Amino acid sequence: MKKTGTGNTDKNKRSRKAKGRLLPFAFIGPHLILFTIFVLIPIIYGLVISFTRWDFINSPVWAGLENYREILFNRESTYHIQFMDGLKNTLLFVVLNVPVSILVPLLFALLLNMKPRGSKIFQSILYLPTLFSISAVGIIWMQMLNKRFGLISMFGVKHSVTTTYPYVWIALIIMSVWWTMGTNMVIYQAALSGVSKDLYESAELDGAGALKRIWYIALPSIRFQLLYTLVITVAGSFNVYGQPLMLTQQGVGGAPKVNVLIMYIKNLAFGSGQSIAGMASAMAIILGAFILVVSFIQFRLVSKDE
Amino acid sequence: MKKKTRASRWASCTILTLVAAVWVLPIVWAVFTSFKTETEIKTKGFGFLPKVWTTENYINILQNTDNAPIVRWFLNSMFMAVTVAVLSIIIVSLTAYGYSRLKFKYRDQLFYTIMAISLFPSVINIIPLYKIISVFDWVNNAMAMIIPGLGAVTNIFLVRQFSLGIPKEFDEAARIDGAGEWRIFTMVILPMLKPVLTVVALFSFTSVWNDFLWPTIVFNDVEKMPLTAGLQLLQGAYGGFQLGPILAAACIAMIPTFLLYLFAQKYFLQSMSLSAGVKG
């Protein structure tokens, strides 16, 4: 691209123009670099690695679809067994957790929307657990559910809740909802307070009861927020890790009772012994694909409704 | 009709009182129990409140510098969370300004591409990200907690959306007065972004303070790790046989975000509606 300039003025103009073109980069550049190194490259890298045999140390060896075949179809393989177990528990968590994590905060938001006395305080309290880390929350619940000294012993519970089915699942879901539902609640609440009062009043004049008003006015008005929280909650539930790890891990070095996919992925890649990062990456890609497909289906289903 | 609404208000008030009482129970129980003596915790038929208030659990846990240096962890977490909050404000405001108020070719296309890429589930990134971190020699280093998150896009989207709502006339007036792009950014737009940037700072702090999976991967040096990763070890070191100290540790871990919430509650609550309400 060598073109001889004609005189000084032209050069100046061009350098000013170049400066103008570079100016946006001064603003977006730093982030663009960080994004490339820590988001874009890892995604591509992760995809490539999933087709290789790799242990983090030596250079990866191309393996084609071997990892995927092993995980998905080789019934003898421990990776297949781990994957199926992790998938089963992860899916069970999604199926149990999502409806409760949508309905409970929705109910609370509807109650708060009636503006009872002290609704601000109720809101603050209900949102509170969301602020804490899963390790602190997990410790509290683990100790609370201690059958000998915990809070439940006060109520005469004799079962070892965190080690017996199906109690361990019930505890897991209750703790998860307690910990995470604040976000959804506040989203619904903000949306509900934006619904025009006139709509409610005219419906009331037409003789619509409270349930009808909720069903025909409140819920359709917050449709977008319901979809948004559904997608976020489903994706978040697929990524479950901290809750079962903290709650169902029994004392010193005990294996968690409920093993989810991310635990297996983490252990394969970063556990003691030789790393099997390629295999772990393939598992991560399968989980990621699951999340993407499910999110996409949800969007399609709802946008078809419009 | 008025009567009816009053009755339903009473009903909702009653239900919410019960629910709220159940909701705080775990936290209140943890706080009270952390002030009990170990013998009282382990005695059958105890009450909810401590009979004798004691700080022995806190002293015990704070003095353990051997396998659970909780003060060290607390300071590590604080350093990471504060640094991320500050850097986030800088990066996010600069970038959001670029994508909302500067004019350049393919600006919106570039932004939406970045946005779409960032929506890929983050499970995929963890393993390669660890490799990248180890290339930078950031394993067991606070940098591993600070830098990668700055590449995220969600907060930029939030601030960009906010900034798009500011009328063009502000920049134009400043430009006529001879202000350059940098002056417009710092003197005109930045002050108007303050509320949304406060939200960004609070959320960056909280998310780093509470991050769990990533720190348990990049830290194995007990001295270097943040509090969340440390607490998990604590479960192993004390869990099962000593309840007091471990509950005290959990309470200590909850203090900073609780204090932030106490003083900046409105920002926490409004941010949620900001992020979900963009299209609604």
TrEMBL record, chain A:
Subcellular location: Cell membrane
Keyword Transport annotated: yes
GO BP, sorted A to Z: transmembrane transport
One Pfam family cited in the UniProt record for this chain: BPD_transp_1
Keyword Transport included in the entry's annotation: yes
CDD domains to which the protein is assigned, alphabetical: TM_PBP2
Keywords, alphabetical: Cell membrane, Membrane, Transmembrane, Transmembrane helix, Transport
GO CC field: plasma membrane
Residues in ABC transmembrane type-1 domain copies: 87-298
Transmembrane segments: 21-45, 91-112, 124-144, 164-187, 222-241, 276-297
InterPro entries per the UniProt record, alphabetical: ABC_transporter_permease (IPR051393), MetI-like (IPR000515), MetI-like_sf (IPR035906)
Membrane topology according to the record: Multi-pass membrane protein
PROSITE patterns according to UniProt: ABC_TM1 (PS50928)
Family per similarity comment: Belongs to the binding-protein-dependent transport system permease family.
PANTHER family: ABC TRANSPORTER PERMEASE PROTEIN, INNER MEMBRANE ABC TRANSPORTER PERMEASE PROTEIN YCJO
Name of the protein in question: Carbohydrate ABC transporter membrane protein 1 (CUT1 family)
UniProtKB/TrEMBL annotation, chain B:
One GO biological process term: transmembrane transport
Mode of membrane association: Multi-pass membrane protein
Domain called ABC transmembrane type-1: residue spans: 74-264
Keyword Hydrolase in annotation: no
Compartments in which it is found: Cell membrane
InterPro entries, sorted: MetI-like, MetI-like_sf
Keywords on record: Cell membrane, Membrane, Transmembrane, Transmembrane helix, Transport
Keyword Membrane: yes
Annotated TM spans: 73-98, 110-130, 142-163, 184-205, 243-264
Superkingdom per UniProt: Bacteria
Family: Belongs to the binding-protein-dependent transport system permease family.
Record-given protein name: Carbohydrate ABC transporter membrane protein 2 (CUT1 family)
Organism: Murimonas intestini
Organism phylogeny: Bacteria, Bacillati, Bacillota, Clostridia, Lachnospirales
